[in-house]
Amino acid sequence: MDNKYDAIVVGAGHNGLVCSALLAKAGKRVLVLEANDQVGGAAVTREFADGYSVSACAHLLYQLQPEVRKDLGLSTRLASENMTTIALSEDGNHLRLQADSVTGVSDEDAEQYRRFRKRMTKFSDLLRKLFNKRAPRLGSKDFKDLLTLGLLGLDLRMLGKEEMQEFLRLIGMNIHDEVTERFENPLLKGAVSLDAVL
Fold it and tell me: pTM value?
């Protein structure tokens, strides 16, 4: 057997498998090494109690990039496109977040949540354009870097003065500061923080 490889991928987790598949699709000879008995990393099903199993990353599946799906010819079928986030309460009045809807909070927190989600969706749409691209180098004289920074600046300006200022304020904050400033309900703060970290 010929043991010459173009690439050796250490770890057969979901990222290693995607990397290996893309390299192989590009015609490279790839060796994948994995220390565990099962490949998949966080993308495996694990038993958390006798007789009960759960996907280790079902809550992260939405992060599978459309470009990766297309490049690998994957046809994924999700159990749900718009899952509810539930924050459990000791008194049984659980908080539920689904799209623009939030239950289990005051009317003021519900309205704050709708405004917050609308703004975050707008900001994420702006940043999505850069998500799978190399970050531009600051201080560079390279045309591609300057063009990318210029287009980002234009997109920021197109938000309008107030939204641009809010974007620049938020981009350097941690989620704790934002939810503490915006919401009263501790369950809402926790649920939004969890989703933000994910």
Answer: 0.71
